Amino acid sequence: MSLAHNLFYVPPEKITSKEIVIDGEAFHHLKNVLRKKTGATVVISDGAGSVFTTEIISVTRSHMTTQIVDKNIVAHRRNLRCALAFVPIKGARNDYILEKGTELGLNCFFPFISERSVVQRIRHSRLQRFERVAISAMLQSQQYFLPAIQPLATSAAVADIFPQYDRVFVAHPDGHRAVDRSAGSVLLVIGPEGGFDEHEVSLFTDRGARLLSLGVHRLRSETAAIVGVTKILTAYNEL
Amino acid sequence: MSLAHNLFYVPPEKITSKEIVIDGEAFHHLKNVLRKKTGATVVISDGAGSVFTTEIISVTRSHMTTQIVDKNIVAHRRNLRCALAFVPIKGARNDYILEKGTELGLNCFFPFISERSVVQRIRHSRLQRFERVAISAMLQSQQYFLPAIQPLATSAAVADIFPQYDRVFVAHPDGHRAVDRSAGSVLLVIGPEGGFDEHEVSLFTDRGARLLSLGVHRLRSETAAIVGVTKILTAYNEL
């Protein structure tokens, strides 16, 4: 649970047909920072397209309960379902991928280990951090859909996901510059800092992925992620 | 002077026809980290398209002198001359604009104060930091052109720059989605977190700027900067 601009996130499983219980960080912010009391209005997103206008009916030391006054179903702003598979890098630059990808309305993130990965494992706390970053970016950009963050996979497991998307692009310097536009869903695969090795590129192209160039400039992984997504969304008239 | 991947930056004014004197951070890295001694080769960019292969001829406590063995003139990788005017925001998010903009090959940055700017001044140390970030990004992305970083200006002063560019785009939610492509040089103007006020928008459009939409999602300033540049470069077939 996180918050920004008076929109709060509560996961769907904590929402009943009548009431929403708010605890954790959102509770702390509402109670101690915004000093909201019984009777105050709280707007809540479930990260799945529902927006609830609620009224606080009780406040305890650990949580508050709100009553649902109104519920709206919001459509996703992207016509294109767009997901990103990326190789986690060291440090805070991953957060950037999660934050900017969420701002741009991606549906799903697939972190995965590549042959040339520097990072070989992701701690549970890191995945939780990814989720906090995504929640914060969702609320900051006033969206009502929280992208899914999948557990860490292998290159082979990422290739197994390809059939779920109409089109898969793998960022690669030898790729085409044009983005073909005949798809309702797209997966973009971004490699590690040193690039994919040939074996992995073959694995991906054998499974139907197309290589997409992101220009002649050498980009950092996290730059390639946002530039690639922007290039695809631009080609699909989604930006 | 900064460094990455064994390419080093020395500003043009420190380069003579025969020798290059390296001091500061680059000197420290070469001497203490890479332990380069007399006779070793050092590759240097002047940030203006020249690449020098040099050989160390002397090392003192404060600097080293290299002899120029070979000089190459490199063409800019962008056909489009593209610059960014942006409103500095609080904290480290500015660095992101400088870093990603440099990676993407922008020629010039114009930081400026807008009506709704949170930040009203930029310390000299901050501008120096901007330059360090740009140098580092230039070397990291293996480019040989360092973008210029102009001193902090006002909105009115930014409008005075417009005639230097064939086309000026101002990121705005009411703008067109299509990027017209009849230009050899483009300036993109990105507003503060709260957006430009109407007075500023009029100031810009009266001077010939076109409003450009970056989609229905609310983007942070630094996201808008990179998404806007990527959208323009994509439209110009530069990515």
Automatic annotation (TrEMBL), chains A, B:
This protein's major location comes to cytoplasm
Q: What is this enzyme's catalytic activity, as reactions?
A: uridine(1498) in 16S rRNA + S-adenosyl-L-methionine = N(3)-methyluridine(1498) in 16S rRNA + S-adenosyl-L-homocysteine + H(+)
One of this protein's GO BP terms?
Answer: rRNA base methylation
Which terms in the Gene Ontology molecular function aspect does this entry carry?
rRNA (uridine-N3-)-methyltransferase activity
Keyword annotations for this protein, in alphabetical order, are: Cytoplasm, Methyltransferase, rRNA processing, S-adenosyl-L-methionine, Transferase
Q: Which residues form the Ribosomal RNA small subunit methyltransferase E PUA-like domain?
A: 22-68
Keyword rRNA processing listed? The answer is yes
Q: Which SUPFAM superfamilies match?
A: alpha/beta knot, PUA domain-like
Q: Which domain of life is it from?
A: Bacteria
- This entry's Enzyme Commission designation comes to 2.1.1.193
Task: State a GO cellular component annotated for this protein.
Answer: cytoplasm
Q: Where in the cell is it found?
A: Cytoplasm
Give the Ribosomal RNA small subunit methyltransferase E methyltransferase domain ranges: 79-229
UniProt record similarity statement: Belongs to the RNA methyltransferase RsmE family.
Function description: Specifically methylates the N3 position of the uracil ring of uridine 1498 (m3U1498) in 16S rRNA. Acts on the fully assembled 30S ribosomal subunit.
What is this protein identified as?
Ribosomal RNA small subunit methyltransferase E
Species the sequence originates in: candidate division WOR_3 bacterium SM23_60
